């Protein structure tokens, strides 16, 4: 029982070791480039949490949350001010990925799909109030916002319409990112993975 409690609590610990201090800016860079790439090509996904996923999987939820938060702030200050608003969403995503990974939900392709849905729900729940407060319920992705507009035209409440818009986009985005992170993680040397695991 004691061993189980120690294992459970260890995922929340973060040591500012050289490895972690190197991982966080690397994860921020991956997030930044991936999001800029998606926006530049006007893709129907954001891709801006790939680095957050990898940081959470390697070093735990705290490292992932920090990576996501920093990326949103930097991206907001340099390319898109809108991004800063969603820094809190990235914190939630980092925590969700880290916890799910620690519990074995990134151990197979089938489990990754379930994890992506859970993470999409977390993201949508946090983002929906922000969408409503700042953008009238829209997400900024044209095809998603067309769903929002259609629901509003049919007198469906703004909060439900906004959540539906966000959740549909989040499912697509998080499934793509989750599988990208899953395949990248599986290609990493076991020595690197053990290095971060032993550092917790």
UniProtKB/TrEMBL annotation:
Keyword Transmembrane among UniProt keywords: yes
Keyword Repeat on entry: no
Segments crossing the lipid bilayer: 12-33, 45-70, 82-100, 112-135, 167-185
Keywords per UniProt: Membrane, Transmembrane, Transmembrane helix
UniProt name for this protein: ECF transporter S component
Gene: ecfS
